[in-house]
Amino acid sequence: MPRSPRTARSLLRRLSPLAVLLGVATVTLPAHAEGVVERAARTGELVMGATAGQPPLVFRDASGEWTGYGVAVGRVIAAEISSAVGRPVKLRVDPTDDPSGLVQGVANGSLNVVCGVPFTWAADGVVDFSLPIAVSGLRVMAPAGRLDGTPESLRGRRIAVVKDSLAATELGGIQPEARAVDVPDLGAALDALQAGRVDGVIADSTLLAGLAKTRGLTGLALTPEEPFETYAVSCMVPENDSQFRNLVNLAIARWMQAYIDGDPVSYTHLRAPETLRYLV
Questions:
Q1: CA-to-CA distance for 25 and 243, rounded, in angstroms?
Q2: What are phi and psi of 190, to 5 degrees?
Q3: Which residues pair with 223 in a beta bridge?
Q4: Kindly report the CA angle at 33 between 31 and 35, in degrees rounded to 5?
């Protein structure tokens, strides 16, 4: 069951001292290279990479506008930069059908930020990560009653995994005798599940729940109740751009503080059902 706003707020209170670590965000521009803040001041935009169609993090609403929790965080970051540089900065979402290209895009500078991604040591070698914006985890979606949430119930089962994802890496450790079936994305994984080509899909439980809800799928269940693996969900930012990273962390800390304080305007997306299983 999703935790209540009161429970989530109490978790935030225990973590709120992180905000103290932020100190005063400065906007002194580096002389050796154009950083994200300087580029945003020059162009008036912050470019956020995203995998297209990943509700509830990043997706288009009925009017075609980008929305979702990740987009909301991106707009808060853009507003923080705008305040720091003294000119308007708007968020521009740059979607891709190739999730593996997001890390490369942030690393090579074609993307400024990607929000709603789990920390991995491999990615941390080429990009930096912000403060957590949430906690999620790996669970399996399957027809209700098929799996009981134990690793044993996955033995011999055909389990869809998005190629090169965290789930693809971890499934073998959860159940070595599970039969991994590579798919290019979560949409293809759910297609395979509906067609009966796989017995279940292991992936980020927030994204699984969001996509299944968007498709109107019924009769499915996420197991186990507590994820096989729990991890922080953060924003990826360019490596060694401390000026930008500090402003990102400041924006996140302020937004989370607004949630603690009960500011309904600031935390509307945090209250959406199934948006996040746990709030940091």
A1: 8
A2: -70, -35
A3: 140
A4: 105
